[in-house]
Write a structure and sequence with these properties.
This protein is mainly beta and about 450 residues long. About 10% of the residues lie in helices and about 35% in strands. The chain is built from three helices and 32 strands. Strand 25 and strand 26 form a beta hairpin. The longest helix has 17 residues. It is globular and about 85 Å long. The termini are far apart.
């Protein structure tokens, strides 16, 4: 009898651990699944897949409707026949597939774009609430598209709003290669070369990169790495020996040299055609004073001058360099052709350089006020165009230093980006600008790409 009971106990024990009526690959509770999976309808799946299934079923369970609520002749709803042109906004009569596009804040013809190329109008070319971007800089290619630096990628955007990634990946790192094999880390300023290639100020990788028209990425100068403490933050020298600290913008000089705003080092650097890197102006980062902001402004001999948060750079046909300086709210000027006698001067703008407080004022020289200016570009008349970020405006600076507002204006409260007729259009935080075809202007505004067509 004892042996019989022992045998029964042994069988029960084995079944407790190994006997099951479940089919292979099925489950009855979450503990039957591994990792982050859950048991759903006797199958182990991820929470993401479970939510997708539940959302699909909820959508399928909704009543199938197809109606014209706003009376504009176009229907909308989940029950409309396949192929019918649906209303993109059945609450607004001004939007329907049969309407003509107008210069306003609406997508009148429901084609997914607003104000596409209409004269006297501002449109959002790429980005917006449905397709948000984190773009920083833009440059126009005469072939009919723009190049755009986004978080870790360089985009190629056509004038119809279609876009593709030319190089880079959504994940940041440092790597040369082709297309998505390459890695950037918060690329910023762009400069187009005559052969269609584009130079990239790869800020967080602390180096200058080059992207060919086909998307091949190589390193022009510096050691690409986010580990600035390991690779060194500042050094002149050859392409591999030079060091940068968050380069923010670059421009090509008439002699083929590349002028670089080395933002983190508060210096203006030069890469000659042979790859040698030298310092043209600046003595290093501003000193940080506790509870008192930063003090980093000084005009004078180039290698004694001080910059504070320099952002963008342009070079004119004579090789004269212009720099936008965000924290000092100024546009600075440098003529390297004067050699040891070269000096940094202020072309326009004035601020409290201790606190970095700018303002908004058209005028000449120190009588003008900017509010954290960033991107620079040339207009057709040889004037500087300035992305006045804090003032939500595009400003014009003549060679004599006279400043006027071209587009936009400061807004009270939180600035808004509003498409429509140029006088009524509004901008939020413009970081860069680039002249386009027929006097138009591309604007990177709060991470989105917008297009001003006069």
């Amino acid at each position: 009898m004892l042996r019989l009971l022992s045998g029964i106990g042994l069988v029960l024990g084995v079944c407790a651990w190994g006997c099951s009526s479940r089919e292979a690959g099925t489950c009855e509770r979450d503990s039957h699944c591994t990792g982050a999976e859950v048991c759903f309808e006797k199958k182990c799946i991820s929470m993401k897949d479970r939510k997708a299934i539940e959302d699909k079923r909820a959508e399928e369970a909704k009543p199938k409707v197809c109606e014209d609520k706003d009376g504009d002749g176009a229907r909308a709803g989940s029950g409309c026949p396949a192929g019918e042109a649906l209303d993109c906004n059945d609450k607004e009569k001004e939007q329907a597939p049969t309407r003509t596009e107008l210069c306003d804040a609406l997508d009148n013809d429901c084609d997914g774009m607003n104000n596409e190329g209409l004269k006297g109008c501002v449109q959002t070319l790429l980005g917006g609430p449905l397709k948000p971007l984190q773009a920083h800089s833009v440059v126009f290619d005469p072939a009919g598209f723009v190049l755009l630096s986004d978080n870790h990628r360089v985009w190629k955007v056509r004038l119809d709003g279609t876009a593709e990634v030319l190089a880079g990946h959504e994940l940041s790192h440092a790597a040369d290669g082709h297309g998505a094999e390459a890695r950037f880390s918060y690329p910023r300023g762009l400069a187009r070369l005559a052969d269609g290639s584009v130079l990239v100020a790869d800020c967080k990788n602390n180096c200058v990169r080059k992207v060919s028209p086909s998307g091949d990425v190589s390193t022009l100068a510096g050691h690409c790495s986010t580990a600035t403490k390991e690779v060194g933050q500042f050094a002149d020298g050859g392409p591999g020996a030079a060091r940068f600290y968050c380069p923010s913008d670059l421009a090509v000089a008439p002699d083929g040299a590349v002028i670089v705003v080395d933002q983190g080092n508060a210096r203006i650097r030069r890469i000659d055609p042979g790859g040698q890197v030298t310092t043209l102006a600046g003595v290093g980062p501003a000193d940080v004073q506790d509870d008192a902001g930063q003090d980093g402004f000084l005009d004078g001999p180039a290698l004694q001058a001080r910059f504070n948060d320099p952002q963008a750079v342009l070079v004119d046909g004579k090789g004269v360099i212009y720099v936008s300086e965000s924290f000092n709210c100024r546009i600075r000027r440098l003529d390297p052709s004067k050699g040891d006698k070269a000096e940094v001067t202020t072309l326009a703008g004035e601020s409290d350089t201790w606190l970095g407080i700018g303002g908004y004022q058209d005028g000449a020289g120190k009588g003008a006020k900017f509010n954290y200016p960033h991107g620079l570009a040339w207009d057709a008349d040889g004037n500087l165009l300035v992305a006045d970020t804090g003032n939500s405006a595009v400003r014009v600076v003549t060679p004599a230093g006279k400043v006027r507002t071209l587009y936009g204006k400061p807004q009270e409260g939180k600035p808004l980006s509003v498409d429509g007729p140029i006088p009524q259009a509004r901008f939020d935080a413009i970081s860069d600008i680039a002249p386009g075809p027929n006097g138009s202007l591309f604007v990177v505004d709060a991470g989105q790409l917008r297009w001003i067509v006069p």
